[in-house]
Amino acid sequence: MTAGVSDRRPTWVEVDLEAIRSNVAAIRTRLEPGTALMAVVKADGYGHGAVAVARAALTAGAARLGVATPEEGAALREAGVTAPVLVLGPTAPEQWPLVAEYGLEAAVADAATAGGLAAAARQQGRVVGVHLKLDTGMGRWGLLPEECDRPWVEALLRGRLSPWLRPAGLMTHFATADAHPDPGTRDQLARFLDVVERLRTTGLLPGCLHAANTAATCRYPGTHFTLVRVGLGLYGLYEDPACPAQRPALRWLSRVVFAKDVPAGFAVGYGATYRTSAPARILTVPVGYADGYRRALSNRHEVLIRGRRYPVVGRVSMDQITVAVPPGSGITVGERVTLLGCEEGPGGRVCIGAGEWARRLDTIPYEVVTGIGARVPRRYQGAGPDGRESLEAPASR
Ligand SMILES: *Cc1c(COP(=O)(O)O)cnc(C)c1O
């Protein structure tokens, strides 16, 4: 959604692609020369727009892209992206042809998937690269370390399961790398290293080894191997002293579409859950829970206008929120409202970031940004989707 009818709405997301590029560059400075960076752009680039983010990240030196589903990978290919794309999540039989058709790589943790992908690859006449996914302690999806000596695994890694499958990588995923204190990453890493050593001695180790998400990339250099898979940090949303100097790339903005001065005792919104205690000006802002402005924020969140915080009052509706400002503030129709992001104010810079949203909603920044609805147009700064950005992985990687 970059042009046309959907782009006129006075509620929009602004993505600073220069921030994405600078986040990629900052993370790359922490990596050894032999370690590449995969930009994880699943869920439409964590709500930022997968194609635009992918291009910015590749331009800044990312070598690969990661998605959750073959459909997401296909969408990148349809947009002209030629860089290697790995489907990180499990795939179903009806999706296997897509993996081959669009030249994607897939994570594999069972014999049926390996066999089905091989059949799809043969049908398309196109070799599929597969990454063996180990469950070293996440407990969600993957081959257990003790299952690695199964005949199909050895055959896969020897390249003998099918001429249509290329053993491309060995991977695992951490469950607690962002936890303070972290109860599990050390054990998971030990289990992964154990498998790596076993495969190395039998000559079956694939060339690409990867385990680290953003948190592990920042906190544990020992988890980097040949590739790190960075999502949250790409978007500047990993709040941790281990990874300073990140820039959030996304701002969510709107404009006041209606304003009225009301007396004390005036009820606002569904359920009349808010009543003014003094004369006030009530602003209507055209964003609601159908856009991902969650109803749980009713009467308990704030927005920024002219660099100051003002409360969201009354219920969040499907398509509107209401904000209270002083009657004499001069704020009226057309005024810009920052729903998520920073503004310069009279007292300096003020921010309502994804972290603050997440704390209020008892969730994590991932859910906040991926929850911004498809109805909200995305606009780009710092070289847009049609700018001079890369569709390829850099040749040196
Ligand atoms: C989403 C995902 C990542 C990226 O995680 P962040 O915490 O956003 O860096 C890495 N690896 C896998 C397997 C994932 O699913």
What does this structure look like?
With 397 residues, the protein is an alpha/beta fold. It folds into 2 domains: 219 residues, Alpha-Beta Barrel (TIM Barrel); 114 residues, Beta Barrel (Lyase, Ornithine Decarboxylase, Chain A, domain 1), CATH 2.40.37. It is 25% helix and 25% strand. An 8-stranded parallel beta sheet has the order 8-7-6-5-4-3-2-9. A 5-stranded mixed beta sheet has the order 19-18-10-1-20. β4, α5 and β5 form a beta-alpha-beta unit. α1 packs across α3. The protein is elongated and about 80 Å long. It starts with 10 loop residues before the first strand and ends in a 16-residue tail after the last strand. The model has no long low-confidence stretch (mean pLDDT 95). It binds pyridoxal-5'-phosphate. Pyridoxal-5'-phosphate binds next to α9 and β9.
Furnish the topology, listing elements before pairings:
Layout: E1 11-16, H1 17-28, E2 36-40, H2 42-46, H3 50-59, E3 64-67, H4 70-78, E4 85-87, H5 96-101, E5 105-108, H6 111-124, E6 128-134, H7 151-157, E7 165-172, H8 185-201, E8 208-210, H9 214-219, E9 227-230, E10 250-255, E11 258-262, E12 267-268, E13 274-275, E14 280-285, E15 302-305, E16 308-313, E17 321-325, E18 336-345, E19 348-352, H10 354-361, H11 365-370, E20 378-381
Helix pairs in contact: 1-3
Catalytic activity: L-alanine = D-alanine
Function: Catalyzes the interconversion of L-alanine and D-alanine. May also act on other amino acids.
GO cellular component, one term: cytosol
